[in-house]
Write a structure and sequence with these properties.
Elements: E1 4-9, H1 14-23, E2 39-42, E3 47-52, H2 57-63, E4 68-72, H3 73-79, E5 84-88, E6 94-100, H4 103-108, E7 111-116, H5 119-129, E8 132-137, H6 144-147, E9 153-158, H7 162-166, E10 170-178, E11 180-184, H8 186-191, H9 193-207
Parallel strand pairs: 1-3, 1-4, 7-8, 7-9
Antiparallel strand pairs: 2-3, 4-11, 5-11, 6-9, 6-10
This protein binds 1-O-pyrophosphono-5-O-phosphono-alpha-D-ribofuranose.
Residues 140-143, 156-163 line the site of 1-O-pyrophosphono-5-O-phosphono-alpha-D-ribofuranose.
């Protein structure tokens, strides 16, 4: 059988995504989030799942290494990949926010320093506002940056708000709503359309 490849991002919504796929009749029997295995199969449906870093999912789909992907809107937007964003899977709802300690600095400073895991999204947001910024790319623990004088503010995702609260940061502005999406490679969508539509319909039926 010619297998379809699905890239699934590791992280907080992976188990929920696996559960959703299972309800849609796509089951990776030997999947376990702590497994070190990187490839899992549903032999009945003919789907090969590659379990990769969440930030890399759009790259797998854009390059055609995967036909489909399940990724957060944050990682999709930041990657600026050329792909189809087909469906909101309604998992991992959170927000993109601008946060910091000192709101006056945020509103009054001419040129802000912004720390973020998402420099492209940060730049695009402030460009639309007509505000000059300098971005500092970090890969995690971004909340630290305003606390140690590395940046004026951060652009990051907020889910429960606990990380901001525990570090004494406040939300200054909300940029966007984020959730987990199903993405599709453009060529695969043309050449494997029947099978991809079957998967989309199965997911739609579960999501209601
Ligand atoms: C994300 C994000 C925030 C936190 C928000 O980080 O960058 O730090 O989660 O969640 P909360 O609002 O529920 O507290 P992640 O847990 O992915 O870790 P990281 O800092 O290592 O990127």
């Amino acid at each position: 059988m010619d297998y379809l490849t699905l890239a699934l991002g590791k992280g907080r919504t992976a188990i929920q995504a696996i559960d959703l796929l299972s309800q849609a009749g796509i089951q990776f029997e030997d999947f376990h989030p702590k497994s070190r295995k990187l490839i899992f199969y549903d032999h009945t449906m003919g789907i090969k799942m590659v379990y990769v870093k969440a930030i890399d999912v759009p790259t797998y789909v854009d390059t055609g290494a995967a036909d489909l992907g399940i990724a957060g809107k944050d990682n999709i937007q930041e990657s600026n990949s050329n792909l189809y964003d087909m469906m909101d899977l309604k998992l991992g709802a959170c927000q993109f926010v601008v946060a910091g300690v000192d709101k006056q600095t945020y509103t009054e400073k001419q040129k802000l320093t912004v720390a973020s895991k998402y420099p492209r999204i940060a730049s695009s947001f402030f460009q639309k506002k007509g505000k000059q910024i300098q971005t500092i790319k970090l890969n995690g623990s971004v909340e630290l940056a305003p606390l140690i004088g590395m940046a004026d503010v951060i652009v990051d995702i907020m889910e429960t708000g606990t990380t901001l609260k525990e570090n004494g940061l406040s939300v200054f502005e909300t940029i966007d709503q984020i959730s987990t999406r199903l993405i599709v490679n453009k060529a695969s969508f043309a050449t494997k359309s029947t099978r991809i539509h079957d998967i989309l319909n199965r997911l739609r039926n579960v999501l209601g």
